[in-house]
Amino acid sequence: MYTPAHFALPDEEAWRILSEAGAGFLLRSSPTGLRSVFVPLLVLDGTLVTHVARGNDWWRDAGVDEEVLAVVNVASAYVSPRYYPSRLEDPRVVPTWNYVVVEARGRLSVHEDSEWLAAQVRRQTEHFEGDTDPWRVDQVPAEYLERQLQAIVGLSIAVTAITGKAKLSQNRPDQDRLEVRRRLGEGSTDERRVASWMPDV
Questions:
Q1: Do strands 96-111 and 152-167 pair parallel, antiparallel, or not at all (unpaired)?
Q2: CATH number for the domain including 59?
Q3: CB 49 within 8 Å of CB 120
Q4: Containing structural domain, residue 128
Q5: Could you tell me which of 54, 56, 25 has the C-alpha nearest to residue 40?
Q6: Which residues of the chain have pLDDT under 50?
Q7: CA distance 7 to 2
Q8: Alpha carbon of 128 to those of 21, 26, 124, 125, 159: distances in Å?
């Protein structure tokens, strides 16, 4: 990912975003071309863990220790040149896009062991259910759970490199950044999410 220094995030911030994103795309190159899958993601000690449906052939021809790219986007919005007060003095402006994204490269392992899968599903459920009246995996009959586990394949990605990028009008004058944040802050849910990432000038 092209990341100019003024848009780059520190690694610890990139890890935080990756941990809090909840889900993202996994991409790999296969003998038949590029493949992607959108999955929930958990971060455990520098490793991403998830699962996919056994019927999803994304994993079937994966090589041992194959490199995979994980991508999460947590904020994204169009920025119009109309938002730049500076255009009134210098009309040389163009539209752009503001966003916050993290990509992580790592080595893929495929897991079909029922104990590994059961532990992963429990961890994932507990993580997303939270602490207030959570639903638990063990609330379903054991035989039903076993059938569900047989229908999935586990994935873990040992992360070898992480890159975080927050493109939030840092390359614009202060007056433009403030107006972009104000305009986006009055917009759609996605626009307000981007505005919330934009710091005070």
A1: antiparallel
A2: 2.30.110.10
A3: yes
A4: 5-190
A5: 25
A6: none
A7: 10
A8: 11, 19, 6, 5, 22
